[in-house]
Amino acid sequence: MIFNKIALFINEYFNLGLSLNRISFLNLFKELYKKNYKFNNYGLKGLLSIEKDLYKISVNKKFKNSVDPKMDDIRTIRNYMEHRILTVKDVGELKQHTKLELSIPMDELDSNSLYLLQKCREAIILVSLMVKENEDKKEAKFKAKNNNLPKVYAFKYDDDLKTR
To answer: If you compute the radius of gyration of the chain from its CA atoms, what whole number of angstroms results?
Structure first.
């Protein structure tokens, strides 16, 4: 799942030190909460919001339900695909749900798949925002620390003078 790949990247980028065989999107945020990590990065806050939608029980116990109800359907479909039986019916047939089997029409599977792809795209954009914001903060700290460095000036030369 792409969200677990994102968790792996965040673990390496921030040097969190999570075990490689324990990294998942949910475990990443559990560990960040255990370490009382300050979510002062807008990209990371956005990813936390996606985590709350993906897993109905958030690591932050204040949120009991998903903010995004469509993700509830996607979570149910995923669980049936992985742990039980999922049957895809022709377009227009009714959805059937038992303890063992979930039957859904093809158009519902299509719309949920496209919605999940949009969430993946959103997560990738948030990762790039997270990195940009973090790198900008690093650069600002470096400039503040090294403010007394001398400036290096470069002169402009015409292209005719550059050939010899």
So the answer is: 23
Contacts 24+ apart (CB under 8 A), 129-134: 129/42, 129/43, 129/46, 130/10, 130/41, 130/42, 130/43, 130/44, 130/46, 130/47, 131/13, 131/43, 132/43, 133/41, 133/42, 133/43, 134/13, 134/41
Cβ-in-10-Å burial (0-12, 13-18, 19+) of 49 comes to middle
pLDDT tens digits in sequence order for the chain, 164 residues long:
788 899 999 999 988 888 888 888 888 888 887 777 777 888 888 888 888 888 765 445 555 556 677 888 888 888 888 899 998 988 777 777 788 898 989 988 999 999 999 999 999 999 999 999 988 888 888 877 777 666 777 777 777 776 65
Q: List the structure tokens of 90.
A: 């022709």
Give the count of beta carbons closer than 10 Å to the beta carbon of residue 163. Answer: 5
